[in-house]
Amino acid sequence: MGKLWEKKTKPDPHVIKFTVGKDYILDQRLVKYDCLCSIAHAKMLNKIGVLEKEELMGIVKALKEIMELDKQGKFKIEIQDEDSHTKIENFLVQKLGDVGKKIHTGRSRNDQVLCALRLYYKDELREIERLVNSLIASIKDFIERYKKVKIPGFTHTRKAMVSSIKLWGDSFIEALRDDLKILKSVFNLIDQSPLGTGAGYGIPVLKIDRNYTKKLLGFKRLQRNPMYVQNSRGKFEGEILSALSMIMYDVNKLSSDIIFFSMGDVGIFKIPEEFTTGSSIMPHKKNPDVFEIARSK
Question: Is 279 a catalytic residue?
Answer without folding.
Answer: yes
